[in-house]
Amino acid sequence: MSAAFSWIRPEPHGIHIVPANCWIDPSRAVDTALVTHGHADHARGGHGTTIATPETLAIMKLRYNTAEGAQPVHYGEVTKLPGGVQASYIPAGHVLGSAQILLEHAGERVIITGDYKRRPDPTCPPFEVTPCDIFITEATFGLPLFTHPPIEEEMAKLLARLNANPEACVLVGAYALGKAQRVIAELRRAGHTDPIYLHGAMEKMCRLYEEFGVDLGELRLVADHTKEEMRGSIIISPPSTLNDRWSRRLPDPITAMASGWMRVRQRARQRNVELPLIISDHADWNELTRTIEEVNPQESWITHGREEALLRWCQLHQRRARALSMVGYEDDEDD
User: Fold this and answer.
1) What is the pLDDT of residue 243?
2) How far apart are CA 238 and CA 254, in angstroms?
3) Listed residue (213, 223, 217, 179) closest to 196, CA to CA
4) Which segments constitute the Metallo-beta-lactamase domain (predicted)?
5) Is there a single domain that holds both residue 118 and residue 191?
6) Does 110 share its domain with 243?
7) 3-class DSSP state for residue 48?
8) According to the model, what pLDDT value does residue 333 have?
9) Domain extent for 314
10) How many domains does the structure of the chain reveal?
């Protein structure tokens, strides 16, 4: 790392903004944390002050019971940090409230993306390309084999299987924050107006999305309805429930899984998924490389995923880049 950017330092438990003594998405409690979004590999409780979008703070309060020290910042709003550092939050298109964080100091601009995607999503504002000097990008799907199909195709597959099996139900495994709400909203956009049933673990987050203006249509709890009532319906549940005892109460469930990892057939087989749906809340390979080209930074720092392939792509395209290894950054709940 050049001396010019010594004020921002990747360390094992997060990215350290040295003049302000603040941290981006730290994996342990610190005095001041700037949080990009509410997934557990980026957000945690115990900080003295947590600076994030109102949506992310609400998600953190719901999931981690964090309320003290919350400092909301809206998209585009400039926050002045100690040491002459300014921070701005810019939409990342990942989940509700997700943000890239633009840091400005000594005439230099650094963007930490957190997680992001480039596909349209009815549940959150789209990613905004913002020029900078250093671009810190995730690489969850940083291999050329990962190309996500249009979500309209995946919704059509889901609805076709449902229509072909009116006496059964389709049980979709989807993570509770982001993926579940996106699948529901895309089903509505595809014209599916019937009630959608939820595992109890999904309800509070869906209701929070609705509080922030995301229309999810009529949602019902599985626990409140009979097997007969749920025939011909779509049911959304955590991935862990697809093949456990809970699913036995459902009418002949066809198991589906919404994940970018469904591109890998072995993953679908391991989970006994009958209907793999390639739906991701992360950028695919083409979107990762396109984003670097559009942002056009002096240097890209690559973290949180398949760093080597994206680093090699940068080298082949005469773009300066380095790979970061961040302890605690494991993509275990949003894909």
Assistant:
1) 85
2) 15
3) 217
4) 19-175
5) no
6) no
7) coil
8) 54
9) 3-145+282-323
10) 2
What confidence score (pLDDT) does residue 29 get?
93
Of 277, 293, 310, which closes a domain? 277
Domain of 299, CATH number, reads 3.60.15.10
**Token pair for residue 251?**
């009418």
Sort residue 56 into left (φ over 0), alpha (ψ -120 to 50) or beta. Answer: alpha
- 42 within domain boundaries: yes
140 and 165 in a single domain? The answer is no
> Is residue 266 a part of any domain in this protein?
yes
Give the SS3 label for residue 116.
coil
Statement to judge: residues 23 and 109 lie in one domain: yes
Residues of the chain with pLDDT under 50: 1-2, 327-332
Only one residue has tokens 């249509």, namely 217
Kindly report the number of other CB atoms within 10 A of residue 46's CB atom.
Answer: 14
Whichever domain contains 264, its CATH number is 3.40.50.12650
Are the CB atoms for 331 and 15 separated by under 8 Å? Answer: no
Sheet holding 14-17, edge to edge: 8-11, 14-17, 22-24, 32-34, 49-52, 70-72
State whether residue 245 is helix, strand or coil. Answer: helix
Sheet harboring 169-173: ordered strands across? 219-221, 196-198, 234-237, 169-173, 253-258, 275-277
- Neighbour-count burial of 154, counting CB atoms closer than 10 A to its CB (0-12 exposed, 13-18 middle, 19+ buried): buried
327 three-state secondary structure:
coil
Structure tokens given for 125: 């504002």
Tokens of 154: 């995946």
| Strand (E) or helix (H) holding 29 | none
The one-letter amino acid code at 232 reads G
What HEC string does 255-322 produce?
EEEECHHHHCHHHHHHCCCCEEECCCCCCCHHHHHHHHHHHCCCEEEEEEECHHHHHHHHHHCCCEEE
Q: Any idea which residue has 């869906």 for tokens?
A: 206
Residue type, 1: M
pTM, full prediction:
0.94
Predicted pLDDT of residue 328: 44
Helix segments in the chain, DSSP class H: 54-64, 151-164, 179-189, 203-211, 265-270, 285-295, 307-316
pLDDT at 68: 82
